[in-house]
Amino acid sequence: MLIAHISDFHVFAKAPETSVVRADAADAARKVVADVAGFAPRIDAVMFTGDLTDGGSAEDYALLQDILSPIDVPIFVVPGNHDARPGLRAAFGDTLPFGAGPFLNYQARVGEIRILALDTLWDGHVAGRLDSAQLDWLAARLGERHDGLTLILMHHPAFPSQMAALDAMTLQEGRDGFEQLIAAYDGPLRILAGHIHRPFQTLWHGAFCAVSGGPAFQHELALGTDTTEPGIVREPYAYFIHRMTGSTSVSIHTRYVEL
After folding, report:
1. For the segment 180-225, what is each residue's pLDDT rounded down to a tens digit?
2. pTM for the complete prediction?
3. Three-state secondary structure readout of the chain
C-alpha cells in the first residue's frame, strides 16, 4: 500500500490570513495534488495533516475541494490552527466519520491500517491542545484490539523537532497525557503531523513520526536554542510517500515537487 502524506496548503479564496503565505498558494497546492494524482504506481490513500486553508471560510473550502478534486482515492484530514471546524466538517462530512460533539476526532480504516485522527485545534492559539475528553477517546481507541498498524494523524506534533521556537508552538495542553498513551502502547504505531513547515522524521517512544513539508511556505533549518521564529527559505518542496507492507515493514520516500 502507498500512502502520501501532505500538509499545510494554507489556500485562500480572497486574501491570506498569514503574512508569510505565498501569494500563489493555490497554484502551489495544485502542483502538489497533480504530483500525487499522477504518481505511478497509484497512491492508495492521502493523509492531510491540517492547515488545509488559511482562513477557514466557506469560500476557502470550496477552493480547496476544487484543488483536491484530481485525487480519486480516500483523503483523510485533520484540522490545523488556521482551519475552522464548521467549514471542515461541511467540506468532508460526507466522506469522513467525524464524531458528534465539538471536536473532529474520528476512527477510520484503509486496508488493514487503523487511522485515529485527532483534532488539536485550540481556538485563538497557534499552539495545539487535546482536552481530557479527547485523551479519554484516544485511550479507549488504543485500548481496542488491533493487530495491524495504527496511524495517528494530528496537526500539532507532540514530538520535538529540536527547533526551539517552533516546538513552543506545537501540542502544549494535553501533551503529557498524550505522551503517556504513546509510551504505553505496545503495537505498531506511526504518527503523522504538520504545522512545522519543514519536513522531518524522528523516532519517539518507539513510534515513527513524520512532519510533511508545507508548500505555502517553508521555515529554514534552525537547530539551536534561539527562541526567534526561523526565517522563510526557498527550498525544494517535499512530501512523503510511505510504502507499507504488512504492519511492521514500511519504507519512506521523499518526493520533491517543483513549485
Report:
1. 999 999 999 999 999 999 999 999 999 999 999 999 999 999 998 8
2. 0.96
3. CEEEEECCCCECCCCCCCCCCCCCHHHHHHHHHHHHHHCCCCCCEEEECCCCECCCCHHHHHHHHHHHCCCCCCEEECCCCCCCHHHHHHHHCCCCCCCCCCCCCEEEEECCEEEEECCCCCCCCCCEECCHHHHHHHHHHHCCCCCCCEEEECCCCCCCCCCHHHHCCCEEECHHHHHHHHHHCCCCEEEEECCCCCCEEEEECCEEEEECCCCCCCECCCCCCCCCCCCECCCCEEEEEEEEECCCEEEEEEEEECC
Contact yes or no for 59/14 (Cβ under 8 A):
yes
How far apart, in whole angstroms, are the C-alpha atoms of residue 142 and residue 207?
Answer: 14
How many CB atoms lie under 10 A from the CB of residue 248?
9
Q: How far apart are CA 256 and CA 239, in angstroms?
A: 7
Residue 168 in grid coordinates: 513552543
Which residue is associated with the grid cell 497512491? 43
